[in-house]
Hints:
Layout: E1 5-9, H1 13-25, E2 29-33, H2 36-45, E3 50-54, H3 62-71, E4 80-84, H4 89-97, E5 102-105, H5 110-128, H6 139-149, E6 157-164, H7 166-196, E7 202-207, E8 210-215, H8 220-234, H9 241-246, E9 248-253, E10 256-261, E11 264-271, H10 280-292
Amino acid sequence: xxxxxxxxxxxxxxxxxxxxxxxxxxxxxxxxxxxxxxxxxxxxxxxxxxxxxxxxxxxxxxxxxxxxxxxxxxxxxxxxxxxxxxxxxxxxxxxxxxxxxxxxxxxxxxxxxxxxxxxxxxxxxxxxxxxxxxxxxxxxxxxxxxxxxxxxxxxxxxxxxxxxxxxxxxxxxxxxxxxxxxxxxxxxxxxxxxxxxxxxxxxxxxxxxxxxxxxxxxxxxxxxxxxxxxxxxxxxxxxxxxxxxxxxxxxxxxxxxxxxxxxxxxxxxxxxxxxxxxxxxxxxxxxxxxxxxxxxxxxxxxxxxxxx
Length: 308
């Protein structure tokens, strides 16, 4: 069972390799970044569940990495454990003031680090209400961010996305494959926002087949088009060769089988450029209505219906 994704930011190969081997054996997916810049780039593309961050790095110190992660909306919730040879009280205070969740000093006890990692991930999931598959914020955090945005002077858009025919895929390919699709969507969203969005953009996962983006980007139509085009093309890799070739799946149905199309992405949006919102429900309902009549990619090609 995958317990989560850990990003180890450490330029000492012996330490990073030891942590990779150990935590992989404990059921975690482990990625290694030898430089602070690498860590920031990797995190923007794929959100880890936790970061083990060395303070002394060849290109920038861990404090600066932590500061940038905390100041970026999409990465601000990720737990960070500082790993360093420094044992000064002032260094620990500096790290904690920047928003680090914990601090461990080299040489360290690997069992102690394991417990700190487990506790940090558990606490983050409990307090932040993150979806365990996508590692994206769920209901309350989405609502809290929307309340904040309603008082913002900057223009923003709320984008509502839903996977068509997800239940049929789940029925044929089962839960593990469906969870892989959820993780794939989260990764795709991060890549599209990295390309066309802004550092202040917010990604959310209110339901199993439902995702949201709250963006300050001026290229909302392009962002929506890219998301739908990439999803409709790349999601096919989650199907068998036979299902990809014929363009549908066969779902068991009372001793018989029925045809269900391959998954596509439906998407809609609303914006402060064209609307003044009185409450959160109005935002979500307008975006859902736009999605239902808008872009799905199920016809000859993508159609954009937008309120931006």
